[in-house]
Amino acid sequence: MPHLERHHYVPKRILNNFGTEKSNGKYEVCLIDLLETKAEYRNTESVMYAKNIYDVSDRDDVKALEKKFNTEIEQPMFEIVDRLLKNTSEVVITRRELEIIKKYMMIQIFRNLWNMQCYTNPPEEKKLLSDYNIKEGESVPDFWRREMMTILDNDWDSLLGSTNLVSVRLHAQMLNTGFLMFFSTKDEFVINDLGVVNERLPMLISEEMHEGLIKNMKERGEIIFGIKNSGEMADELMKIKKRYLDTAIWMPLSVNLAVVNVNDIMRRYMMDPMVAVKIGVPLFESDLFGSVTLPEQKYVNQTAIDADLENLKKKHSAEISKLPSEQVDHYKDRLRLMAITKNKSDDDRYRYIVHELGPNRTMNWNMSVMNEAYQFLCCKTPVKLIPAIEEYTDMKAIGMGNMKNDYARYIDILKTLKKY
Q: What is the per-residue pLDDT across 111-141, written as a single tens digit (0 to 9) for each?
């Protein structure tokens, strides 16, 4: 099956949206190779892939995972993307489509080569979530593939509540509590070989708050992570939380459209600006600061949701009365989410404003994508990337933004590439 040997860790159909269609119906993108100092036009069939990396050993069909990528998540996602690209002023999706987008984003987080590298060559003394679920005799790459197969084999509700794979469940719950936003540009977005990029802000937690969060995570570990002894993992996660908070996951869909999964902390900040002070995160540094909007929601079973919410408030009134005032709204939000989840319908609808980004904000997000590239970066028009490279290089020279890659060496190369 030669046609199934090239396993794209960023789907070709998405890469086409960053390329130029040729007379033969195929697409070309400008590919920047960070390891070999090359920039050239390449067919999307021959970029961002590796041979047979998704082959599985526990199924009769070794290509089962690669085939499931296509049938279970890529094709449904491509149908949504194709429709979204026809209207960049607003987005209207159903709950089923919302869950497809989040599941696709989750698969993209798992499937890329950087994530595989983190599994096979983890930093020393770092606790991995996979340690809780890997089977005796199972190789790390095989476990990585089993996680992705689990994501594809299960519906969204199962990923949230019944799967026993800790990392899968944790990522599903993280994505589920966030909300989507959509951004367009008249310039051009770029895409890297991860397919997604996190916006991370430093997080400073007081000792008192740290101990409280550890206790809470240990008490709720079985519910949240599906394991009974979650103390060790809680300690590891809190060490990470001391360093940063992921405020958004940016996923470019084309040169002109991107979707973002926004951490719920941004919604809570809109309700109570003191949230940023309480959790020690400078949310004003987020590129989303000042432009966060929530979707307009229309639930099929709104009457049942309202009734269940009132019953939940009565049932939990004692707990609510004991909470500090600043925690009451957050607790009620959780009850509302429980009522919505109980009465949800695939036909619930969400309407989003598409925010148009100007040149500077487009450049900011592109620099984030550039910074997190593992080996490859793709763009449509090479010369349009040069201002971002110059800004990136200047920031790196003065030690701003933790810039990791060397793009200055590509400016002269990009200038020589042909224009379409």
A: 999 988 887 776 655 556 666 788 888 998 9
Angle between helices 166-177 and 95-111 (to 10 degrees): 130
Same domain assignment for residues 333 and 364: no
Residue 416 confidence (pLDDT) above 80: yes
- DSSP state, residue 275: H
**Residues constituting the chain:** 420
Same domain (yes/no): 6, 59:
yes
Q: Which residues constitute the domain of residue 309?
A: 301-344
Is 142 a member of any domain? yes
Q: Which residue has the higher pLDDT, 217 or 43?
A: 43
**Tally of domains in the chain:** 2
| Distance in angstroms (rounded) separating the CA atoms of residues 51 and 66 | 11
Looking only at the bridges linking them, the beta strands covering 349-357 and 90-94 are antiparallel
- From 344, 373, 397, give the residue that closes a domain: 344
CA distance 68 to 54: 10
* Helical packing angle, 95-111 and 75-84, nearest 10°: 120
Specify the pTM: 0.90
Q: Is the pLDDT of residue 381 over 70?
A: yes
- Which among 321, 344, 367 is the end of a domain? 344
Instruction: Specify if 224 maps to a domain.
Output: no
List the structure tokens of 224: 């949240």
Partners of 42 in the β-ladder: 29
Shared-domain flag, residues 164 and 68:
yes
Q: Does residue 59 belong to any structural domain of this protein?
A: yes
- C-alpha distances out from residue 31 to 18, 46, 122, 373, Å: 10, 10, 28, 12
pLDDT of residue 175: 95
Query: Would residue 237 count as lying in a domain?
Result: no
Q: What is the phi/psi pair of residue 124, to 5°? A: -60, 145
What is the residue-averaged pLDDT of the chain?
A: 88
337 and 199 within one domain: no
Q: For residues 205 and 364, give the distance between their C-alpha atoms in angstroms, rounded to a whole number.
A: 27
Residue 222 pLDDT more than 90? no
Name which of 162, 170, 86, 175 is nearest 128 in CA terms: 170
Do residues 342 and 379 make contact, with C-beta atoms less than 8 angstroms apart? no
